[in-house]
Write a structure and sequence with these properties.
The complex is a heterodimer of chains A (about 70) and B (about 220). Chain A is of the alpha+beta class and about 70 residues long. Chain A contains one helix and four strands, in the order E-E-H-E-E. With about 220 residues, chain B is α+β, with helices and mostly antiparallel strands. In chain B, a hairpin with a 2-residue loop joins strand 10 and strand 11.
Chain lengths: ~70, ~220
């Protein structure tokens, strides 16, 4: 399943299932050290990752910017 | 004589930096608490997420309130600046805004008026873009109907009455989802992590009635308010 396009998460802000599945496969995942900024109750979720950058509709993965985008994700 | 100050911080971190702006705001507040200086909760204010704005990851400002004497306020401004320069990320552009509540003259035009509105602003490092968010944080906290209170908590398994929640200082106000007051005798249950929001300037617990039983909204549910 494809989770990102050009580093942008395709599930928007409320697709917990995909955010968890994506984080499970991700070698870059790092839990946001500020518990306050974690938005998913499942810790290993892209929504809780230190390297996500929120935008209006979704978030951008700063580890998967186009130049480093991994085809496996 | 103590006076009420609003203190707001923004843009102190960088991608992957472990100390968030909220963490720094809470650490500053704790320093005041240790000196028995009255403070009120740290609130998180969501600012605009737009590609025209250069933000790190969330674009949120953190604001808290403290009652300071004139001498304490002078010392605290210096202490805050030194603390942030030491603790913020190398590439951050931290900004702080401090305003004495009684000296804010143009509340409704605070952002546009900036420094002329009586707010102390300091661009601490880099271009100091953080002052923009910090100033917005002051305005949003003053307005009092936006933002979440930093921290999570749980209610006892058996629940508490609204009156007990208020008396124990767990929340400053308990409202239903339509922002209506709930009977102080009503019992409120809450199983998971709970989160307070800012409403009418108060740290507010939101509750929902289900089959005649009041239940506190959990973190995920409170997020949409």
């Amino acid at each position: 399943m494809r989770f990102f396009q050009h580093g942008i998460f395709l599930g928007g802000k409320e697709d917990d299932e995909r955010a968890i599945e994506s984080a499970r496969e991700c070698e870059h995942f790092a839990l946001d050290s500020d518990e306050e900024e974690r938005v998913s109750s499942e810790e290993r979720s892209c929504y809780n990752c230190l390297f996500r950058r929120w935008n209006k509709e979704s978030f951008e993965c700063l580890k998967l910017k186009p130049s480093t985008n991994s085809p496996s994700l | 004589m103590r006076e009420v100050w609003l203190i707001s911080l923004d843009d102190t971190d960088e991608v992957g930096y472990p100390k968030s702006t909220g963490w720094l705001a809470e650490a500053l507040r704790q320093r005041l608490i240790e000196r028995a200086i009255p403070t009120r909760f740290v609130s998180r204010h969501q600012l605009l997420l737009d590609e025209r704005i250069n933000y790190t990851s969330h674009n949120s400002a953190m604001t808290f309130i403290a009652s300071l004497t004139p001498h304490e306020s002078e010392d605290f401004i210096t202490e805050t600046e030194q603390f942030l320069l030491k603790e913020c990320a190398a590439s951050a552009e931290p900004g702080i805004a401090l305003a004495k509540r009684c000296e804010i003259r143009e509340e409704s035009r605070l952002i546009a008026w900036g420094k002329r509105a009586g707010v102390y602003l300091n661009e601490l490092q880099g271009a100091g873009r953080g002052v923009i968010g910090a100033l917005a944080g002051i305005a949003l906290r003053l307005e009092g109907n936006e933002g979440r209170v930093r921290g999570k908590f749980r209610l006892p398994e058996a629940g508490l009455s609204v009156g007990e929640i208020l008396e124990r200082g767990i929340a400053e106000c308990v409202l239903d989802e339509g922002f209506r007051a709930v009977d102080p005798k009503a019992r409120v249950k809450g199983g998971g992590n709970l989160k307070l929001i800012v409403r009418a300037g108060l740290a507010t617990l939101l509750v929902r009635q289900e089959s005649g039983i009041w239940r506190a909204l959990e973190v995920e549910e409170a997020r949409r308010f």
